[in-house]
Amino acid sequence: ATVPTSLNVTSEEMHDSRNDMAQRTAAPAWRPAGALLTQGDLEIAQLGLVSGEDAVNYFTTATKDAPVKFVHLVPANTGMDFKPYSLDVVSSGVALSCGNYFTMSQSGLVHCVLHNDSNATECISMNEWVRHSTFFNLLRSIPYFKFFIPLKMFQQWRSNVRQQLFSHQQRRLARRLFLARTSFCGPIIELKKDIYKLKKATFISTPKPRVQSDPLE
Question: What's the pTM?
Fold first, then answer.
């Protein structure tokens, strides 16, 4: 019996097909469309390292013979929710294009900021990073810090509503108040100016005239 042509696949083609399937299925969502994964990116994807917590858990339990020595991370897009310790694992090309990224290994993290021609780096140990992240999450669990942004927005909205109501009442009063009418406020202002000038005017005191008696009396 003859074997169909579609089944005549060499070992090299099978290896390439497996790599292509790994790139399609194991590639994380941060990989740009059309970009090819490197061997290190494939190993990271196969380990399921997606977030910063996954990377911390991996490096805290990894040995010296671990296949992945370091990963690149960028700040996660959390919207209005401020989470500086929330990171996403990305490839090296994506990290460099962002300009603000982290490099995590077993020893710790290195925060790199690329701005124009200047580079700034900051090193922090893994224990210190985990401790700061834990303290931050504990503080964010307090209702005041947890709902700070919604409460701030609600207070601003309430202040704006009160300001609009005050402006509405002010315009309404200006339309109805007799002293605020254009035909009356002009003359009253002129009258007040004249009264003010009259108050500031200086007067000369003259002695009382003497009354002379009639010489015929």
Answer: 0.53
List, as one string, the DSSP characters of the chain: -PPPGGG---HHHHHHHHHHHHHHHS--TTSPTTPPP-HHHHHHHHHT--BHHHHHHHHHH--TT-S--EEEEEE---TTS--TT-EEEE-HHHHHHHSEEEEEESSEEEEEEEETTEEEEEEEEHHHHHHHHHHHHHHHHSHHHHTHHHHHHHHHHHHHHHHHHHHHHHHHHHHH-STT-HHHHHHHHHHHHHHHHHHH------PPPP-PPPTT-
Residue 43 pLDDT > 80:
no
Q: Per-residue pLDDT tens for 85-105? A: 888 888 878 888 888 888 888
Cβ proximity of 87 and 73 under 8 Å: yes
